[in-house]
Amino acid sequence: xxxxxxxxxxxxxxxxxxxxxxxxAFGLFVGAIPGLTAxxxxxxxxxxxxxxxxxxxxxSIVTASAMAIFSGDIPGALLRIPGTPASAAYVEDSYxxxxxxxxxEALGALLVFSVIGGIFGTIVLIVASPILAExxxxxxxxxxxxxxxxxxxxxxxxxxxxxPRGLVALIIGLVAASVGMDNPTAEPRFxxxxxxxxxGISFIPAMIGLFALAEVFRYFxxxxxxxxxxxxxxxxMLRSQIGVLRRYPKQMLRGNITGTLIGALPGxxxxxxxxxxxxxxxxxxxxxxKFGKGHVEGLVEAGASNNAAVSGAWIPALVFGIPGDSITxxxxxxxxxxxxxxxxxIFINQAELINALFIVFLLANLLMIPLGWLAIRASTxxxxxxxxxxxPIITLFCIVGAFAITNSxxxxxxxxxxxxLGFLMEENDIPIAPAILGLVLGPLLEQHFITSMIKADGNxxxxxxxxxxxxxxxxxxxxxxxxxxxxxxxxxxxxxT
Amino acid sequence: MRLGDRxxxxxxxxxxIGLFFASRQFSPIPGQKYGAETLPLVISxxxxxxxxxxxxxxxxxxxxxxxxTTPDWAxxxxxxxxxxxAIIVIAGYILVSDWLGFTISSLILVAALxxxxxxxxxxxxxxxxxxxxxxxxxxxxxxLVPLPRGEFLSLPW
Lengths: 497, 157
Description:
Chain A has 497 residues and is mostly helical. Chain A has one domain. Chain A is 74% helix and 0% strand. In chain B, helix 4 (102-116) runs antiparallel to helix 5 (121-142). Chains A and B meet through helix 8, helix 9, helix 19, helix 20 and helix 21 of A and strand 1, helix 1, helix 2, helix 3 and helix 4 of B.
């Protein structure tokens, strides 16, 4: 059997298809509930994926995350509350359209362009990642060191909010990453005599705490009071999109490209992609005055962009093992556990798994049309589930999930500690994503640095001696200097005017 | 409570100093310049720089302002009580689950959290019971997670 046929057989296994259907429904549900994010859906799924075959596990995460990003649009259009942060950019437009009786057009556009964006991102993933992987085969620890550092830096400068607060988050993640014996001299670091900490901070309980439990705590203090949602209609929902597609082909394409690129940038995911695409759409529109007042153009571009970002984020994750967003940060952990070590060699050694992953991506995005349609029809029921009942149930899932990873209460202790930490971070406007990247990339940074230094006998200049490493190094340093350069340019401009 | 840039900067700087001294106890790989102390040392230098950055930024922009600001929710004792109670309930689960077993301790956990969110007892109890049975079946039976059986009642499976 050829590699491709093997991959198809892996995906079209009834068990994998059933997992995709169930995960899709789960993703749609979590995404549609305001306050629960796509990352949370992924974090809650991980403990269950431990008990699945590799492809079923990946299929489950891919389907759930893509569906959650789309379904976050539904409460936006019906309640004016975005289901996930990725839907926040265009919530005003979609809600006003629904109020004005154009609900089917708005929801249809969000569904159809999410699918198109997701498929575009997948095609780029299919085409670009093997090419990048071939290039990455020439990489040694020097290049990887710079790539990891670039990933960490991009996470800071791309995430919204203040740069120093983003750096504080990164420091928190790096400190957590340095706990345990997994270091060059296998000395116990920051374990305070605790035997459980010798193995380091287990990533999954930390993620569940930071993303899911912290949200539960936020609910306890802020509450999410939902009003009565508008009644959705699906009549002519998909058909009306042919006209929209004819009117805005350029916007769709721009959203697809921007979303994929931003997704591929380490640390930046669907949330940022949607905001940037919405801003670009308004900037280049012939009718910018209509934006925010119930105009479909922004929905086309930003709706496509956030789903394209979901696929784009997998490019650096698969090729370099560097997550493109917080979802792929979790995915990398799952890939390692499933024996699919991310990196360029995965394309050679496990070609059938990679092909199967691409097929899963395409299938998950196509599945979004029927499942999304059903979710829109069922949205009034989904939104009627009271959060006061949902949050305690999520807490129990967090506890069982954290326990399942370590098979001891230590996982739950870690999750609780990170839940409190995540809550405090959000209250202080310290973003979570850089902390996650610090936790994932910290060990890689240390490993590549030490390996390089052993090779070069401690000569730091060796990081600039190989051409690609030098290029990456200079680029990373330029990224660090970017805010300074921008400030100088602004001052000079002000002085001139 | 939201820390202003000055307060967060001072805290980061303190952390940096602590981390710097803590990193001194680790040693490099024999015969090499670098080792287990490198990463914590680099983090401490980065944290020191970020702390100073925040302090300088805070001194420039927060002149006359308080070091910390209190968000609206933090002025309500009920909100504090709720979040503390939620943490205590989860910590309680950690402490007693081995002894009480998953069934009883998670039933208490879910029901207590539901009461905290304002669900009525008559709704909370049956929903909590149904949730626990489903979770125990899914994780304990299907996924074979060794949920604590406890010394008390545990479901037949």
